[in-house]
Amino acid sequence: MDDTARRLLQRLVRRIPSQLLKPTLEKWGRLKRTQLDSLDFSQSKYSLTEKLLSVCEENGSSIKHITELELLYVIDNPVAGKWHAYQFIDPEDDAHTVELMQFKEQFKSHLTELVQNVSIKMKKHTDEAVWIRLAWGQSFSRPNHFKPTYVVYHLQSPYVFMTSMNSKHRPLLSQALVLATRHQAVKNANLSGKLNAIRDLVMRQYEHVFPTKFPSNISENNENTKNPNIKQEQEEQSSNRLQMACEAFGGGKLPEIQSAVYNLETKFRGHAKNMEERGGPFKCVVTFSGTNILESLRSCASSGIASTPVTPVLSSIPRKGRNYFLMTDNNPGSSQTQQQQK
């Protein structure tokens, strides 16, 4: 093992929780059963790391094998870090026929033509997603395996998900993906957050509720309500609010979107002369944040804290699959807004 492989393995072992280390190494399959049994996972991370380094040295493990281990861990535990969604546009006629081997060969071929020193590791997951680990190098330097970029692409789907990367690498990666998937271009979907959450949102993998003339009744336990007519009216109002909230945001468990950002640009409308003479629009940023803002907004609407029907400003998060919005005036003097791409 060279120094880079040793340092990467040390950092990876420190990163993996102790209870996940053994199953991850078993899935890796690079250790013999006797070697795996010789590891005492109740030891301190330092002692365990030194023992594992010794075993990997004995096996002649290379940086290729260590990056494979890291990819396996990230696939099973993608919660760390911030992911960004991108959308392919203008598919070619044969875009729906692209298969795994064809995609892998085309992607590697195109990216290595664009970047001289890049390390590419690819693996197909059980959910049909292709996981890609990229380590970028410079013209005269080896790939930096300590700052990799991860990409997740579901074959024949219009979306791809990436972690953060250097701005100069993004257009090169985008070009390789566009060519390999048979599309004309790829654009920022203005959606970021945890991988599972943004993937579920754009791929509509949550319960949808559609408008109905017969919403289900919801009973409220209110001991102070004595009049049965008042009670019936309250139940109907509560049921209607819940129906409209679920139509706007979805039913059941919702994707764990943790933030939504609204960048507002608008002109002043009033009679204050000094404000009218102010050049340029007013700008401000409104951010909603929490462990799951979709469930929070649905709860506010269903409980009556927020008005219903839900404003399109909020319902656009699940409807458009975005959590970044730029809102500007349609024209001078208009109070309406439009949502644009970032």
Please, could you describe this protein's structure?
One of its GO terms (biological process) is CENP-A containing chromatin assembly. Residues 214-240 have a biased composition (Polar residues). Keywords: Centromere, Chromosome, Nucleus. Residues 213-240 are annotated as: Disordered. With 342 residues, the chain is an alpha+beta fold. Helices cover 41% and strands 21% of the residues. The protein folds into 3 domains: 3-76, no CATH class; 83-202, S-adenosylmethionine decarboxylase (4-Layer Sandwich); 228-340, Roll (Ubiquitin-like (UB roll)), CATH 3.10.20.720. It has helices at residues 3-15, 18-28, 33-37, 45-59, 63-76, 100-114, 170-181, 195-202, 228-249, 273-276, 293-303, 312-320; strands at residues 83-91, 118-124, 129-136, 149-154, 159-163, 183-193, 259-266, 282-289, 324-329, 337-340. It has a 6-stranded antiparallel beta sheet with strand order 2-3-4-5-1-6, with helices on both faces. A 4-stranded mixed beta sheet has the order 8-7-9-10, with no helix packed on it. The two termini are 45 Å apart.
Quick tags:
3 domains; disordered C terminus; Chl4/mis15/CENP-N; about 350 residues; Ubiquitin-like (UB roll); S-adenosylmethionine decarboxylase; 12 helices; chromosome; centromere; CENP-NAC/CAD_complex
SSE map:
Layout: H1 3-15, H2 18-28, H3 33-37, H4 45-59, H5 63-76, E1 83-91, H6 100-114, E2 118-124, E3 129-136, E4 149-154, E5 159-163, H7 170-181, E6 183-193, H8 195-202, H9 228-249, E7 259-266, H10 273-276, E8 282-289, H11 293-303, H12 312-320, E9 324-329, E10 337-340
Parallel strand pairs: 7-9
Antiparallel strand pairs: 1-5, 1-6, 2-3, 3-4, 4-5, 7-8, 9-10
